[in-house]
Each structure stands twice: as structure tokens, then as C-alpha cells.
Amino acid sequence: MWELEIETNMSNLMDMLKSQNIYIFSAVFFPAVFCILSELIHQVRKKSLLLKKDFDYLKVLLNTTPDAILFLDEQKNVIFQNDKFKTLFQTYEKVLSDARLDSFFDRIDYLQKEVCIQSQIAQDHDFLMSFKLAKFQDKKNYFISFKDLKNLKDKEKIIENQKHQMIEKNKLASLGEMASGIAHEINNPLTVIHSNNNMIQKLLQRDNCDVNKLSDLITKTKCQVSRITEIITSLRSLSRGLTNDEKENFKIDKVIEEAINLAKIRSMSKKVIFNFTPQELTAYGNKGQIVQVILNLFNNAVDAIQDTDAPWVKIEFKERGHYVDIYMTDSGKGIDAEIVEKIFLPMYTTKDIGKGTGLGLSLSKNFIEQNSGTLDYVSEKENTCFRISLIKSSESTKSVA
Fold first, then answer.
1. Alpha carbon distance 282, 247 (integer Å)
2. Radius of gyration of the CA atoms of the chain, in A
3. What is the pLDDT of residues 139-186, one digit of tens each?
4. H or E element that contains 110
5. Given strand 374-377, what is the order of strands in its sheet?
6. What would the pLDDT profile of 215-269 be if each residue is shown by its tens digit?
7. Any idea what the Cα angle at residue 328 is, between residues 241 and 348, rounded to 5°?
């Protein structure tokens, strides 16, 4: 305007804007820009609220976890610490010092180990520490979590105690099932012994005592006493399994005989034939636990085949390197493929309600594994077959020495 030597005033300025159509442009452009900027600000606020909502939700999740969680930036400043961390520890600097994390920051991407550090709950408190380096846009962040092992180990003890109680109940239930059979098995030999004693007394009262008949009666009495002794020995072996953790060398055929004695007591009215040829084989382990496992397999077999024609159970042995395999096959037609993978799971049972706890095979497998052996189902056989693998006694003796 000064170049045109026009006086600068409001009237001349408006005339100039009108002549250049700037007035119309401004009347349209500025309101449009305002609307666009308002919408952008609204969208930014909306996104910000969503991000805050997501962040708050993430904080709730991190505070819900039972582990103590800590996030640090590259300068080791705290980005986030959950409520569990604040409850357990006073300052994160003390935690970093006690856990000796300084040496890990620049050298290790991932680390997990048990640490014993001080907490507000106890002095030497056990934790499982997980350390993770996370990189984002060339910036380092550190994720550190602490799992309370003391609490976890206390819970494991409770579970272990509950398992032992269930084992004891299971054992008492088995003994209860055998109670009438035990009474019958012991009462019969006692009746024979009593009768033999009466006959011996009568023979001794005669002037011409028949020595051969007397000797025969004494021999029969000894056999009955041996029968009672076998039953009591088998019961003692059954009860020993959970009262001690001692391992020893033992003859496998003796263990099989003890389990068969107990299984026959339980299956007296079921007429199951046990086919067993003793062999001079020895193994190493907790004899009482092995008896319980074999008895459990026998009992399962008897329950499965008791209503079939001519039920039988066959025991065979096979030496395999450092192990002895015991095959227990019954006259059943095998286990359905769809449930084979479930039979060793705790609390799983195919028996009717009140006839099975679902603990038998899972505990049996656990017992055998505690004795460095294996228990599995042999699906290749035509009949139902389980295999127990035990360490040979000679090998176990060498390892102990």
C-alpha cells in the first residue's frame, strides 16, 4: 500500500482485501482450519484416554500377579513397580544390590536363577529371579521379576502332606478290602494246626505210637505255620513302603510272591490263576514300595478280568542292559487307545464310583520313578500288559559305592 502511496487506514485496507478476494478466502479458510484443528484435538484426547485406559488396565494386570515385578529404563530408573514389589521390598536399589544385578545389565539378555535376599517378610527369603533385557527403538529397558519360592515351597509341602494322607487312606482301603480274606487265610491254617495238635496228642497217648503218622502231622503243621508266616511277611512288606525311604538289594521273585499272596487274599472268590516261574534275579530299590506297585497292578488286573472265563495273570522277566523288565500280562483284551494316555494321570479312574480313587497308577508310576525305574503300558501285546523296569542290584551297588 505504501508502494502505491495509498493511505493506510481500515477503510483502505478493507477495500484492498475485497479487491483481492482475500476477505472471502479468510471467511472460509479460518473456520475450516478451526474445525479441523478441533477434530484433531478431539481425536488426540480420545486416543490419550484410550492409552491411559489401556495403561491402567495393564497396571491392574501387573498388580494382580503374585510375583514382584520391576521395570527399569536404560539409566536404571524405575518405570514401574507393582504392588507386590512395594509390599515385599523397601527400595529397589537395595534389591539390585542384594541380588547383585549390576553385573548382569550390560552382559546378559536373559537370566533366571534362585536368589536369597532380604524382604520385609523375612531375612534370608528365597526368590526365583527372572531378568530380561528388552530393546525398543535402540533404547534398553529391563524387566525383573521375583517369584516367592518360600510361599511356593510351603504350598508344595502342604500338597505333599495331602498326597501322603491320600496314599495312607488308599492303603487302608486296600487293607480293608483284604480284611475278610486275611481272616479266612489265617483262620484256615489255624484250624488245621488245631486239628493236627489234637491228633498228635491222641497218637502220643497210645502205647504203640505211629511215628510215621506223627512225623507227617508235624510236617503238615509246619506247612500251615509257613503259610501264616508268608501272609504276615507280605503284609509287613506292604506296610513298610511308606514308613521309610531305605533302598536295598532284593530278590524279585520274593517280591512277586509276596504281592501274589496279598492279591490272592483279595481275589479269593474270583478264581484268578497266577502264572509265575521264579528266576534268580535281583534289583535295587525300596522293597515295600515295589510290593505296593506290583500288588496294585495285580488288583487292577483282577478287577478287570474277574467276570471273564478262565481269568489269568502271567508274570515274565527280561534282562535289558542295566535293567530288569517285569512284564505283568492278564487275560484282558487291552486298554482302549483313547484312554491309554490318561491312565497315569492323578484322579483318573475307569472303575465305578466307590471302587477306585484314581490314585493307583499315578502313585505307582511315581513310586517306580523314585526308585530310578519306569512303569509303562505295553500296547504291542494282544492282552493287557504293564512293564516295570528296575535297576539291577549289581549296577546300583556300584553307583552307591
1. 13
2. 41
3. 888 888 888 887 777 777 777 777 777 666 666 666 666 666 667 667
4. strand 110-117
5. 273-276, 312-320, 323-330, 385-391, 374-377
6. 888 888 888 888 788 777 766 766 665 556 678 899 999 889 888 888 877 655 5
7. 65
